[in-house]
Specification:
By secondary structure, the protein is of the alpha+beta class. The chain is built from nine helices and 20 strands.
Amino acid sequence: MLETVLDVLKNSAADDYEVTQSVTTGWEFYFIRHDLDQNRAKKVEHIRVKVYKKVDDGQFLGFASGEVPVDSSEEEIKKYIDGLIYQASLVKNRPYELCAPKDAEAIDVSVPDAKEEAARFLKTFASVEETESEYLNSYEIFYNITRRRFITSRGIDITEVYPSSALDVVVNAKNEEHEIELYRYYTLGSCDEEYIRREIEDTLRYGRDRLVTKPTPKLGECPVLFSTDAAIEIYNYFLDNLDTAYVYRKMSSFELGKPISEDIRGDKVTLEARRVLPNSSENFAYDRDGAPIRDLVLMKDSIPEAYWGSRMFSQYMGLEDSFSVSNWVISGGTKSEEELRSGTYLEIVEFSDFQVDSITGDIFGEIRLAYYHDGDIITPVSGGSVSGDLKEALKEMYMSVNTRHFNNVEIPSVTRLEKVTVTGIE
């Protein structure tokens, strides 16, 4: 099938093309409580095509992409690719040079045996500590090994093999009056027993506390702590503003060599792109354009040092060695977790929704579960919302020395923003 697609592209009206073939084999398990409801093995192939077309005698470059059904006939493939070429001819982007072949340092990716890895997942879920009132309602385990090949008309032909996992988990908590469900979705490379057990047992505890919450008080502007994966949204703000797509389109004000903010009284942010993170599902040697990925400091002490991004926008900015980030790390700050958890503050662990707008810096989220610390009194609370402006809040943001790993991201385990507005319902 792949060879047929390549032959059609070579004889088509496309000026350039890229083809990505991915073949994924894996095991899937579906549990109700701890009783196996269904399991299956799978092998799935996908072929995605991206075609480029010069427009107006090369003044512009258009592109279009799509997936070719693997059961297509040669005639159907020709018709589909001709349609993509037509779509590309309607697009008028500034022209740019596609990636040329360039060797990347090989990544020694450990791909565990599928059967053994599945057994580790099952053992890990069975070891989770439950009670009669807080327990696993259901869970689904997906373990995949993907072989991905990327071929272009410019001579790139690279193949990578990597593991990836996904977990769908529903936790129940109940008392004499109420019963609630909490949903979780995790992505990781292969089975990390400690991480999975900690995450699920934390969720069981949150479910228990959610049943006895008080209304969130109207705190106004106060310190707020983030100690779950919601904090990734805060740090995505910095990553996005170093993306060449944001910088080129004037959506980011970050400039190389200049502090991102004046009068920073708290911890400063250091952000690094990493080729490899332990147990990440995105440990790749090359990005989606075929550019080699490397370790690179993007921001040091809140001063940008390098941009990252797609080939198109990197070319527009005159950058030849840029790449798209797959793994990234925020260095730990200067405070211990004990220091950050001092005084009066609100620690939010469950949101209905939490977002940080990468352009405006606006913070907004609806509180499902938080812990209000007022001296020695800790009260589980729910309801209300949190809002603020990260551009201002980052001036007095404090981060723990310790860091925490979430798939392809490593961030401080606790983040404290001193001035965030909490609108309660009490």
